[in-house]
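Work package 3, deliverable 3.1, input record:
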Amino acid sequence: MENATELKIIEAAKEVFQKKGYDGARMQEIADEAKINKAMLHYYFRTKERLFDAVLQQAIATIFPKIMSIAQEEISIEDKIRKFVHTYIDIIIANPALPNFIFNEMTQRPDKFRKYISHHISSNSKMFMEQYKREAAKGNLIEIEPEQFFISLVGSCIFPFIGKPLIKIIMKFDDKEFQNFIEARKEALSVLMINAVKKKK
Amino acid sequence: MENATELKIIEAAKEVFQKKGYDGARMQEIADEAKINKAMLHYYFRTKERLFDAVLQQAIATIFPKIMSIAQEEISIEDKIRKFVHTYIDIIIANPALPNFIFNEMTQRPDKFRKYISHHISSNSKMFMEQYKREAAKGNLIEIEPEQFFISLVGSCIFPFIGKPLIKIIMKFDDKEFQNFIEARKEALSVLMINAVKKKK
DNA sequence: GATAAATTTAACCAAATGGTTAATCCAAAC
DNA sequence: GTTTGGATTAACCATTTGGTTAAATTTATC
């Protein structure tokens, strides 16, 4: 990834693939976006599939390591929840097209996805589950399968971005209001999710 | 939608479009799935786009009215949360390909989506927000923007289906275990979300 | 500055794809 | 049982699309 042309191609491919998906993307559109000749795409990446793979791989590498690293920090569950929410939402704000792209291509091409994600799965998420169980045993957290909680946490962070068009319609948000909603969500969701696991006295 | 051939086409188109998306779907594949000649597709629906529209419209009509109706029932917020979670998850279990299809096409073709969903948006969701504020004023619920809570609720129901391949990898679930996870989720998520809004004494 | 190698371009190609058409089939109406 | 109109089929068509190629241009090497 040192070459200037190669970089321009990757950037353009990222743009087009993330916006249109594999099936909707056109090699010509990527070439136009990169302001180069279409043959260059094949010169550097041989096929559409290989170019796509490079983009997918990079997309996965952008998002997963950052997420995973939080799970293993030595802080309380509550701090972890707050940090996770803030970090995750900030990452997606910086890459708003990523969730749709990843979740759609993951469903469409699970084998490909599994292949590229394998480098990034660690035991970190399991550590989170263990920590939850330990703190729950002390009596401060409700007894729930931590996996169920974890999925709710992740889903609540990602869903507003995947469902943006629907949310804008139902809540009658314009773009600015949607942006404010997301900004406010970092703290609101932290509070909500921490309260969700706290046991009532 | 009275003709037998037309019905076969719609069913086949639903299958293929929901699985592959608009761009990934092929008219020939739909014809094969319906066991008819490809020209029939155009005879009954003129173009790929119109056939797609019929499928999208039906998909939206399948899922939205059922959801929306719950919001206006005259039951407490807590009962509403539980009923919403159970109903929503049951609907998606019955139509597992719908979330991915709808959320992806909604992002890809927001105008089309807006057009077909307009019949189904009601003031019901607003009624939920008002109810939340009323019950919060009594002091039993935490003070959070109800919109933030509502999005978490919906996201937590839908996300496991959108993220199924990822969840299976991270949690090391096989299909049976994933199914059990979803079954257990109906009650676990109800408990979690009700606890999330309950104020600590 | 000539030579070789890498990069870029324009033109081209074959396959796939959405869509059309003319002929045929078939059931109902008379 | 002939006619009529919709349903169905096979063959065909134009365009799009991913991919190739051979020539040209630029860059690096000596």
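Residues 135 and 149 of chain B are 14 Å apart (CA to CA).
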